[in-house]
Amino acid sequence: ADETITLTLDTDAPAITIAPEIYGQFAEHLGSCIYGGIWVGEDSSIPNTSGYRNDVISAFKELHIPVLRWPGGCFADEYHWVDGIGPKENRPRMVNNNWGGTVEDNSFGTHEFFNLCELIGTEPYLSGNVGSGSVEELAKWVEYITAADGPMAKLRKENGREKPWKLKYLGVGNESWGCGGNFTPEFYADVYRRYQTYCRNFNGNHLYKIASGASDYDYKWTDVLMKNAGNLMDGISLHYYTTPGWTGSKGSATKFTDDDYYWTLGKCLEIEDVIKKHADIMDKYDPKKRVGLLVDEWGTWWDQEPGSIPGHLYQQNTMRDAMVAALSLNVFHKYTDRVKMANIAQIANVLQSMVLTKDDKMVLTPTYYVFKMYVPHQGARMIPVTAQFPEMKVRSERSDTLRTLPMLSATASEKDGVVTVSMTNISLDKAYKIEIPLGDIKAKNITGEILTSDNIAAYNDFDHPNDVKIKPFDTKNVKVKKGVLSLTLPAKSIVTLSLR
Ligand code: AHR
């Protein structure tokens, strides 16, 4: 490493907590995310607890998932919750029109979802049906889940759940500009106002109401929603996928050139500009930042794996995806004054997933390992990091211009006296020397972890489940001299250090 980069950690910055919900997940009735990925049913030969796969559940527990969004996605606006309660043999079947026309037997419904959340210790986030549902249907769903008494509570009790559940996050529709009803922003804002009126707070439960927000660069959507309904919402969503586009091939998840790789990271980092622009609009209507910007769908979207079922969005996950995860999380930390939640798409077997399953086998993806390494940042005090990073230029798909891509990225936080610094070197061939002036940060005891691979396209599959995994970072590589910590950050690596 010949080039030295200095990271300045501003420990005196005003205290702001990294919203733990930035580490949220998303589980849709899509492909084998729910069925096969999480839920196999009590009678399955795959080891399970009350129908939930044991291997997957213990992997999820390690991530300390703060919030889980369900049942969609596009599925949510065709989902009728009453079809998913009561004896399984009586539940009607439906066609999952959005995702491959697969028949859905409704065996995983409200009870199965809330019990899953209890099992893994996560806050449920329901996406309500606005597109093809009714105000009454959504209002009754909230009542069914949270009321202690009354007709909906009675029905819930008959179905085996005496105590109401707690429900905080309620999404009023999903992608209402598209699969969720093709609304105009003006019309949706009015619909939102109406729906949210009838979603009541029962028995001390308090709903955090979320309006269906914009995709990518649709700033008008955010503007109209904030202007016409901002006072009636707690959060507004934003969807941003790292993908080459919505028509034609999106490219292979595992076979890509160096140029594709750098292009991907450029596209991923453009989320910073997108967040800033939506946040600026929100500032106009909500200068006190009461309303959260929730990036409730994000991640990579590649062509489905050859041979997999069309419409099921099953894709592999390489070190390139791990880079996208680390860079995105670093951006979310930086804007956590506005970004109060993010939900990567999706938790199992769909898009940029945490786990892949096949029959009774499961592998953890490189993205899973980034989430694991970043657990200490959840709910920690954010420490702003500044640095002069070397840059390269990459092509931008939206114009002929070139976009600037920093070769490094870093984030830091402090919790319980431990400072956690996460650093990413995206360069395919160059290591960098990093120096961190410590100031009053204690670094008597330093431990670290690294996620890297010689091959940026490396991934884990059922025959090679451990090709990419976290390794201890050799702290012989880390020196502290005259109050400055230094280390070499290898090419293609993500490193987290804990200083105490
Ligand atoms: O995550 C897959 C799909 O992407 C979701 O169903 C939809 O909201 C988005 O378009």
From TrEMBL:
Top enzyme category: hydrolase
Keyword flag Signal: yes
Limits of the Alpha-L-arabinofuranosidase C-terminal domain: 296-493
Keyword list, A-Z: Carbohydrate metabolism, Glycosidase, Hydrolase, Signal
EC number(s) reported in the record: 3.2.1.55
Catalyzed chemical reaction(s): Hydrolysis of terminal non-reducing alpha-L-arabinofuranoside residues in alpha-L-arabinosides
SUPFAM superfamilies referenced in this protein's UniProt entry, alphabetically: (Trans)glycosidases (SSF51445), Glycosyl hydrolase domain (SSF51011)
Xref: Pfam families: Alpha-L-AF_C, ASD1_dom
Entry-linked Gene3D superfamilies: Glycosidases, Golgi alpha-mannosidase II
Homology family: Belongs to the glycosyl hydrolase 51 family.
Subunit structure: Homohexamer; trimer of dimers.
Name of protein: non-reducing end alpha-L-arabinofuranosidase
